[in-house]
Amino acid sequence: MKRFLLQVWRLLPVWLQVILSRIIRPSFRVFVAAVMLDQDKRIFLVKQTYQRFHPWGIPGGGLDHGELPENGVIREVLEETGLTVAVEKPLLIKTWAPDKLAIYYLCRIEDGVFHPTDEVSEYGYFSLAALPDIRPTDTGLLHQLYEIIGSYEYELAGSISRSGR
After folding, report:
1. pTM (predicted TM-score)
2. What domains sit in the chain, N to C, each tagged with a CATH number?
3. Average pLDDT of 58-68?
Protein backbone atom coordinates (compact mmCIF):
# COMPACT_ATOMS: atom_id res chain seq x y z
CA MET A 1 0.00 0.00 0.00
CA LYS A 2 2.83 2.41 0.89
CA ARG A 3 4.51 1.84 -2.48
CA PHE A 4 1.21 2.54 -4.28
CA LEU A 5 0.63 5.75 -2.34
CA LEU A 6 4.18 6.94 -3.07
CA GLN A 7 3.64 6.34 -6.79
CA VAL A 8 0.36 8.29 -6.72
CA TRP A 9 2.10 11.09 -4.78
CA ARG A 10 4.79 11.25 -7.46
CA LEU A 11 2.16 11.98 -10.11
CA LEU A 12 0.58 14.89 -8.26
CA PRO A 13 1.57 18.43 -9.20
CA VAL A 14 3.90 20.11 -6.70
CA TRP A 15 1.31 22.70 -5.65
CA LEU A 16 -1.11 19.89 -4.70
CA GLN A 17 1.64 18.04 -2.82
CA VAL A 18 2.24 21.19 -0.75
CA ILE A 19 -1.47 21.57 0.09
CA LEU A 20 -1.89 17.90 0.95
CA SER A 21 1.27 17.94 3.08
CA ARG A 22 -0.20 20.74 5.17
CA ILE A 23 -3.46 18.82 5.58
CA ILE A 24 -1.75 15.53 6.45
CA ARG A 25 0.84 17.10 8.78
CA PRO A 26 -0.33 20.64 9.58
CA SER A 27 2.06 21.29 12.48
CA PHE A 28 5.61 22.55 12.56
CA ARG A 29 7.92 19.99 10.90
CA VAL A 30 11.53 19.18 11.73
CA PHE A 31 13.54 17.31 9.13
CA VAL A 32 16.90 15.65 9.60
CA ALA A 33 19.39 14.71 6.90
CA ALA A 34 22.63 12.73 6.77
CA VAL A 35 25.58 14.28 4.94
CA MET A 36 28.04 11.50 4.14
CA LEU A 37 31.23 11.75 2.12
CA ASP A 38 33.50 9.07 0.74
CA GLN A 39 37.32 9.20 0.83
CA ASP A 40 37.29 11.32 -2.35
CA LYS A 41 34.96 13.90 -0.71
CA ARG A 42 32.03 12.92 -2.94
CA ILE A 43 28.61 13.20 -1.30
CA PHE A 44 26.24 10.27 -0.82
CA LEU A 45 22.88 10.96 -2.50
CA VAL A 46 19.77 8.81 -2.94
CA LYS A 47 17.22 8.64 -5.74
CA GLN A 48 13.77 9.04 -4.24
CA THR A 49 10.95 7.03 -5.82
CA TYR A 50 8.24 9.57 -4.98
CA GLN A 51 9.88 12.58 -6.68
CA ARG A 52 8.98 12.92 -10.34
CA PHE A 53 11.24 15.92 -10.90
CA HIS A 54 14.73 16.22 -9.42
CA PRO A 55 14.57 12.83 -7.65
CA TRP A 56 18.09 12.87 -6.16
CA GLY A 57 18.80 14.24 -2.70
CA ILE A 58 20.41 13.85 0.69
CA PRO A 59 18.93 10.97 2.70
CA GLY A 60 16.71 12.00 5.56
CA GLY A 61 13.16 12.75 6.61
CA GLY A 62 10.85 14.02 9.28
CA LEU A 63 11.25 13.46 13.00
CA ASP A 64 8.68 11.39 14.83
CA HIS A 65 6.97 13.02 17.82
CA GLY A 66 9.37 13.09 20.78
CA GLU A 67 12.28 11.70 18.78
CA LEU A 68 15.77 13.12 19.27
CA PRO A 69 17.20 14.55 16.02
CA GLU A 70 20.33 12.35 16.18
CA ASN A 71 18.18 9.24 16.56
CA GLY A 72 15.90 10.43 13.76
CA VAL A 73 18.70 10.78 11.22
CA ILE A 74 20.01 7.31 12.08
CA ARG A 75 16.48 5.86 11.72
CA GLU A 76 15.78 7.65 8.43
CA VAL A 77 19.00 6.45 6.77
CA LEU A 78 18.36 2.89 7.95
CA GLU A 79 14.74 2.94 6.71
CA GLU A 80 15.65 4.43 3.34
CA THR A 81 18.85 2.52 2.58
CA GLY A 82 19.47 -0.35 4.99
CA LEU A 83 22.69 1.35 6.11
CA THR A 84 23.62 2.03 9.72
CA VAL A 85 25.26 5.40 10.29
CA ALA A 86 26.99 7.14 13.16
CA VAL A 87 26.41 10.83 13.74
CA GLU A 88 29.66 12.79 13.93
CA LYS A 89 28.39 16.35 14.40
CA PRO A 90 25.62 18.77 13.42
CA LEU A 91 26.59 20.85 10.39
CA LEU A 92 23.71 23.19 9.65
CA ILE A 93 20.26 24.17 10.85
CA LYS A 94 18.16 25.76 8.13
CA THR A 95 14.58 26.91 7.65
CA TRP A 96 12.93 27.07 4.25
CA ALA A 97 9.34 27.82 5.18
CA PRO A 98 7.69 29.34 8.25
CA ASP A 99 6.82 25.85 9.49
CA LYS A 100 9.82 23.77 8.34
CA LEU A 101 13.25 23.37 9.86
CA ALA A 102 16.03 21.02 8.73
CA ILE A 103 19.04 19.80 10.67
CA TYR A 104 21.94 18.47 8.60
CA TYR A 105 24.36 16.09 10.31
CA LEU A 106 27.76 14.91 9.21
CA CYS A 107 27.51 11.11 9.39
CA ARG A 108 29.58 8.12 8.46
CA ILE A 109 28.43 4.70 7.34
CA GLU A 110 29.16 2.11 9.98
CA ASP A 111 27.49 -1.04 8.67
CA GLY A 112 25.00 -2.53 6.29
CA VAL A 113 24.47 -3.08 2.60
CA PHE A 114 22.34 -0.76 0.49
CA HIS A 115 19.03 -2.18 -0.60
CA PRO A 116 16.25 -0.39 -2.51
CA THR A 117 13.16 0.50 -0.48
CA ASP A 118 9.72 1.93 -1.21
CA GLU A 119 11.21 5.42 -0.91
CA VAL A 120 14.70 5.02 -2.43
CA SER A 121 15.62 3.12 -5.60
CA GLU A 122 19.37 3.73 -5.81
CA TYR A 123 22.29 5.69 -4.41
CA GLY A 124 25.55 7.15 -5.59
CA TYR A 125 28.52 9.27 -4.56
CA PHE A 126 28.83 12.51 -6.52
CA SER A 127 31.25 15.40 -6.73
CA LEU A 128 29.89 18.94 -6.78
CA ALA A 129 30.97 19.13 -10.43
CA ALA A 130 28.98 16.03 -11.44
CA LEU A 131 25.73 16.14 -9.48
CA PRO A 132 22.72 14.13 -10.68
CA ASP A 133 19.22 15.61 -11.13
CA ILE A 134 18.77 17.42 -7.79
CA ARG A 135 16.47 20.32 -6.90
CA PRO A 136 18.02 23.61 -8.04
CA THR A 137 17.92 24.94 -4.47
CA ASP A 138 19.89 21.91 -3.26
CA THR A 139 22.90 22.89 -5.37
CA GLY A 140 23.50 25.95 -3.21
CA LEU A 141 22.82 23.91 -0.07
CA LEU A 142 25.44 21.33 -1.06
CA HIS A 143 28.01 24.07 -1.69
CA GLN A 144 27.21 25.54 1.74
CA LEU A 145 27.59 22.13 3.40
CA TYR A 146 30.94 21.56 1.68
CA GLU A 147 32.16 24.96 2.93
CA ILE A 148 31.13 24.06 6.49
CA ILE A 149 32.80 20.65 6.28
CA GLY A 150 35.96 22.26 4.89
CA SER A 151 36.05 24.71 7.80
CA TYR A 152 35.54 21.85 10.25
CA GLU A 153 38.41 19.84 8.71
CA TYR A 154 40.66 22.93 8.77
CA GLU A 155 39.87 23.52 12.46
CA LEU A 156 40.46 19.84 13.22
CA ALA A 157 43.81 19.83 11.41
CA GLY A 158 44.84 22.99 13.28
CA SER A 159 43.98 21.50 16.67
CA ILE A 160 45.96 18.34 15.87
CA SER A 161 49.06 20.31 14.81
CA ARG A 162 48.84 22.55 17.90
CA SER A 163 48.67 19.51 20.18
CA GLY A 164 51.84 18.09 18.63
CA ARG A 165 50.30 15.08 16.89
Report:
1. 0.79
2. 27-162 (3.90.79.10)
3. 93
